[in-house]
Design goal:
alpha+beta; 111 residues; two-stranded parallel ribbon; globular; 11% strand
């Protein structure tokens, strides 16, 4: 035994979904989203995580989030590597805000 904790294969490659992000940095700029100033944003970012069984909680939460909260939400869901995530499509049905799956280089924006 080496003293290192072995990771379960599912935790080695978790699927992360994030909502309420612009489609591209250019989209964020054209929407008038303020640029980050030395790592500072002018709006809060709320991260919410859940297991695969947390979908109902996500849906209930976004049923009550107003379209103009001024907050960016990032969702992270633990999901088997054998399943493709459709979290953004599912959340979009309950959200009054823009919902998209995160991609490299995409800037976070509120609402």
């Amino acid at each position: 035994m080496t003293g290192k904790k072995e990771q379960h294969p599912q935790t080695q490659k978790e699927t992360a979904d994030r909502a309420a992000l612009p489609e591209s940095p250019a989209a964020a700029q054209s929407a008038g989203v303020p640029a980050a100033d030395e790592g500072h944003l002018d709006f809060p970012i709320v991260g919410i995580g859940a297991s695969a069984g947390g979908l109902k909680a996500f849906e209930t939460f976004f049923d009550h989030v107003p379209a103009d909260s001024g907050i960016a939400f990032v969702l992270i869901q633990h999901l088997s590597t054998q399943h493709e995530s459709i979290l953004d499509d599912l959340i979009r049905r309950h959200a009054q805000i823009e919902v998209s799956e995160v991609e490299d280089g995409v800037a976070v924006q509120p609402n």
